Queue: 2 jobs
Job 1
Amino acid sequence: MTWIEVTSLASRDVECGGIRCLVIRSLRATFSISSRQPVGIAVETSKLNQLNRDAFDAPVRKASVTSDIWSSPSARRPPWQGTDPVPAPACPLKRGTITRAPIGHHGSGTTERKDEPVLPAEYDMLRHVWFPVARVEDVAETGVFGANILGEQLVVYRVGAVSTVAGAYCPHRGMTLSLGQLTQDCLECPYHGWRFAPGTGACTAVPSLPDRPPPPRSDLRVYPSTEAYGHVWAALETPELDLPDLPEARDPDWRFAHGGPTDLTCGLRQITENFRDMSHFAFVHRVSMGPNVQQVVDPYRVEHGGTELRWALDVDLGGTALSGNSGLAGKQAFSFFVSVPMFATVRADFPGGGHSLVIQFATPISADGLRVRHFWSIGIDSAVPELHGADIAQMRQWEQEIFDEDFVILDKLRPIEAPLDSHSQAHTRSDKFSLEYRRAYLELVERYATRRPAA
Ligand code: FES
Ligand SMILES: [Fe+2]
């Protein structure tokens, strides 16, 4: 008998104890192809996204709602129960994936976390996103470079100012093309010397058969690609979100440098949240920023429009870093920007004049989304060296030290990806961005959930 599995993701709003929740469920149905009748339906996951912005710093109230969410009168019957043949999903806190605290203590600290791979609709979404695959300077230096998005191996080659991103393996005998070279403005396979054109990936030469056209199926599969912000970007499918526009990158008064890529065991959301997190500075960055970093995070308001989030915060980094350069490492005003799913910037306005901009982006490099390749850039305007005596090389070095400290933390966070179920972690006022970001991320995933075949 032949079977086919269909997955889908659906959501419902649930009013529960005054808290509005978005319940996400992922279903897997098994059908018999011959009869087209469902033979089994299973709830894969259920994720709760708390949307009530007033619930910050209300641990007692949150704990009560968390424990009773499926037994409170308003939530006992989920909206789809009775009209949908699928049984109501269990509360994720009762699925055995999280070790519960003793009765009477509704803690969320855990001894076990289950790492769940990306949801089917999330995977679809990620295939339509521009991701960085290489620094332009690396591809320009070698001409040919290996890359990866969601575990799909790619080759990047650059002829003149044109970068091409294609499937990693030669259509002849499967040689790894990132080990090839540029010959006569084409990518040359190192095994039998077949050559492939820039832009189209068309096979232009088969040295063993010089008088004949290349055989069928000899072209490379080429992916959408572009260059921006010092990096080559690619997407596995037609990208559906534009890369954000950064005015600083078009301003001739600014200078930029680009950090080297780093592979991490870490989810895309986890690394994006870390970059925006302010309350870890005083602890994770004691060495790079010094001992006097402000610990208290002032209240802030996150502006959420479409797939973009913005907010601003003033912070005092203590003034001891950069050899006591208080103009750059003391009080400053941060402006944060995130474009879901992972493009993030932080702009610093220095009270004595000058600005810096750090840009972070990351690419999932495993199909389950639990490995990422981290890329970043830093820019400064001309006032920074003129007024504060630090050039782009010094600022890049300082930022690299900061990121190196973050990488140690990111490697040890569990679960590996930041959970979409906000009830599985504790939150404070300073984490407001994380919840808004996860909500925006879910909204983006939902766009793709509606496109999947119904279970
Ligand atoms: S494997 Fe590439 S040319 Fe033969
Ligand atoms: Fe950090």
Job 2
Amino acid sequence: MKKIVFFCLLQASICLGQNAQVIRGPYLQSVTPTSVLVHWRTNVPTASRVFYQAKGKVLEKLDTNRVTDHVLALNQLKPSTRYTYQIDSKSFVADRYVVTAPAFGSAQKVRIWALGDFGDGSASQKAVMKSIEAYTQGNRPDAWIWLGDNAYNNGKDEEYQKNVFDVYQQSFLQNLPIYPSPGNHDYGGKHDPSFPPYFKIFNMPSEGQAGGVSSLSESFYSVNYGPVHLVALDTEMRESSGMMLKDGKGEQVDWLKKDLAANKLPWVVVYFHKPPYSKGSHDSDIELDMKSMRENMTSIFEEYKVDLVIAGHSHVYERSFPMRGHAGVNETFDASKHVVAQSIAPNQYVVGPNGQGVIYVVSGSGGKVGGQRPGYPMKSSVYTNNTIGGSVIMDVSKHRFNLKWIQSDGVLGDEFVIEKK
Ligand SMILES: [Fe+2]
């Protein structure tokens, strides 16, 4: 008898779920080789249930607590495996799936999409998205990194709905793992990490479960994805000690050094919002946030042989030479001193055991576009564009790193290759 009552209660809870409407998502968070968090929102509180399947075997995950913001962990998955899934239903559809990350240690080739300064509801935002949809047809990105200013104007929950979820849901959010970083607009111009809805909407893998050193902070974390170590930092957060990333010290920087020192993967990409070098809509010579990043952080990236630092904030595309020791203003750049690279052809670098300089990319035109400050283009830039939006596709295999900047009109605007033996 007891069993029957329990069963009815359970069924009543699920029945309510069937009447509810999904009003956000589903979207995928903290994807690792063996797990994923599936997030979605319903218009009324319901139980959470996901059906998922691989190779015809259907599994189910249920949480009977009634909520509107649902987070369900699917665990014990197999690496590099595609699971179709569905909320509270077995009616699977082809474009609702998760592909788990490659097994740790795998050098499997991966494709990563980096997007910055996008959620403004503009025609350019949609054109950039369409350009990536078209460009990656048949070879979809495996992971998606966000460079901040994800939802204008103040990172409010309703701004995320209108300018992020309503735009990317169908094409990307239901099947592409996001590893985000926040910008000044996501923080509403503040520096208090308890403020941004960003931290409620997203779940970052901050306990080392996606690889890398545990940070225990959702502001900054790292992910081992195939042959690339991805490090997400937060340029906006002020620590209780008063320190920020741009100060070059504090908890975030201590963690970064530990994380980079522990890394064994062949490629390191560090990403965050405010760039150390830009002359687009923001000027790193005079804006203190960026000037301090240049003066206090670039030597750390060099010391740990970071391959690429990619940021947003400035609504342009800028790509630097591989550089070391350029901590001064734009005018002090001296190619004979600061470029550290062996180039075998234009935009094609080969690096030995001592590495090369760090390449800095600004890709802040995923929605917002334009701007230039005195001195644009920078002396340290190989290529710049402030007239059309775009975003970055990185194809990374064990010995080869290829970055492409795809414009919103579909044209390949810039490209370089690094080969490392
Ligand atoms: Fe910004």
